[in-house]
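G., the chain you wanted modeled:
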Amino acid sequence: MNRSGVHGVQQSMEYCVETFDLTKRFGDLCAVDHVDLRVERGSFYGFLGPNGAGKSTTIKMLTGLMAPTSGSARLLGRDLASDALAIKERIGVVPEDLCLFQNLTAREYLTFMARMYRVPKPVYTVRREELLSLLGLDDTGKTLVLEFSHGMKKKLSIAAALLHDPELLFLDEPFEGIDAIASRTIRTVLDRMVQRGSTIFLTSHILEIVEKLCSHVGIIADGKLVTETRLDELAAGGTLEQAFVEVVGEPEEAAVGLSWLGENHDA
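Predicted structure as tokens:
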């Protein structure tokens, strides 16, 4: 039966994110090529792939930041094309390009974001201070975001994404530039979110973090989804890195190496 029929509705209740032939072209380049994702509700989904594989482009389409060339998507049981606003109210996003308001302080920015999501003041006031303290930003005072380091901006973006307690959270390289202590804290928070029933969609090049956090993985290469499965099934009998290289393939230059490293300088 067609996915728009009865079985399609039942499937949508099982999945938090579904895409159907999702495609994005930039001229002659097909960045995302007819991708069909199925992300189970309550899962911690790792979306992996080499640089330029189409990960960030996929997230931009799923979060409404970029329109697909063709295909469609359903998030939280709603059609992205027709119910984008209703979906955005229930998701959180840490994008590749952080897109923060540079001339606000951390507290001002989180207050603004809370009002955008219509979080009641008594609720967001408590959450804002807890997040600032947890992520080590509570002593930034009147310092403007434009003066923050990259790591501080990343932590502020994560705080803003968590502030309204989203049902679905998209994280595009959230640990890039984050120190080890903050990274551990964030991992603990994300794990608790999943335990409470939230769904997390993560891209990261740090495979060790994916191994620790994710229950499911999808791997994209050259715009195509090459595998989608449970993490324990993909990495059975080995490491995620080994499984990833086997699925994606090792580039020829990696096997050849660098010519000068084979030279004997003692000769």
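Residues 180-195 form the longest helix (16 residues).

Shout if anything looks off.
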